[in-house]
Design the sequence.
């Protein structure tokens, strides 16, 4: 499997591969790959002749230095997993921080409007500027036709669509369904930091979202939010950071339910210092 760490080398390789029938898929990741990432790579392989997977733990999207430090880095295992899908049609791009940012590891400021002022944007200062900065940089280097992102980070998916609109980069963004553990926990690289007890109990998160979906047609959203708070209040393992029902496109929090619009419920929960997020389409 080809693994590039330099911008110039991967750009030269991709330029040499390009021809009229060539279609390039791209899956940006921070590594510690799991079945969720592999489902994105499979979708990319099914629709493109070549797929670039980037593996880069992006410092500018972390608001918490200890989260950045503890983020799992498993390049050798990641490459083995990718090789189970294809040894010839996947190219890995794993740049260093210096290759991406040069001397100054700072993010560009974007205006993502209503998309950034809440949930992940509200609780993780600067997070989406960091995401926008790295994804824009990667798109400019890799120049993919299509890029694939998981709906687990649904707010990120909307932010990236907005970033592409703002920057007018010629890339199509595809959102892919959330992959789940057998108990419903959304797959995440951070799950590897959970204890067995926390993993078992984590079924509560998805089960809560399923109940929210059941309640959505018949109950007021304020009552549903209160009910979610009670599910987590005084829980011995989990602390609720936020629960929010929002319009799917704008992410503006629901006021008056209007069933001609599409809504999603979003949740963020801490298990000690491990932060877990999930979401579900409600209608
Ligand atoms: O979703 C992620 O893993 C990251 O936010 C991304 C899109 C690779 C940017 O660093």
Sequence:
């Amino acid at each position: 499997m080809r693994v590039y760490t330099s911008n110039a080398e991967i750009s030269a390789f991709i330029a040499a591969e390009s021809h009229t029938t060539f279609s390039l898929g791209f899956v940006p990741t921070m590594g510690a790959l799991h079945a969720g990432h592999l489902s994105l790579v499979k979708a990319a392989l099914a629709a493109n002749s070549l797929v670039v997977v980037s593996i880069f733990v992006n410092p500018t999207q972390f608001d918490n230095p200890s989260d950045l430090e503890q983020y799992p880095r498993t390049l050798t295992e990641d490459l083995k997993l990718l090789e189970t899908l294809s040894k010839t049609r996947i190219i890995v791009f794993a740049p260093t921080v210096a290759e991406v940012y040069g001397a100054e590891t700072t993010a560009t400021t974007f205006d993502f409007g209503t998309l950034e002022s809440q949930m992940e944007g509200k609780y993780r200062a600067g997070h989406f500027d960091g995401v926008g900065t790295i994804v824009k940089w990667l798109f400019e280097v890799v120049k993919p036709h299509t890029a694939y992102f998981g709906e687990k980070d649904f707010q990120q998916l909307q932010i990236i669509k907005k970033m592409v609109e703002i920057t007018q980069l010629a890339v199509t963004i595809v959102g892919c369904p959330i992959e789940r553990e057998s108990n419903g926990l959304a797959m995440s690289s951070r799950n590897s930091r959970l204890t067995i007890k926390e993993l078992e109990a984590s079924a509560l998160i998805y089960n809560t979202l399923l109940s929210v979906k059941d309640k959505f047609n018949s109950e007021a959203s304020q009552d549903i939010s209160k009910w979610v708070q009670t599910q987590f209040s005084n829980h011995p393992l989990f602390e609720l950071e936020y629960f929010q029902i929002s319009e799917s496109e704008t992410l503006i929090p629901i006021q008056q339910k209007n069933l001609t619009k599409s809504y999603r419920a979003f949740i963020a929960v801490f298990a000690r210092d491990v932060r877990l997020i999930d979401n579900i389409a409600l209608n």
User: Anything to note?
Assistant: The domain at 189-281 is CATH 3.30.1300.10 (Pantoate--beta-alanine Ligase; Chain: A,domain 2).
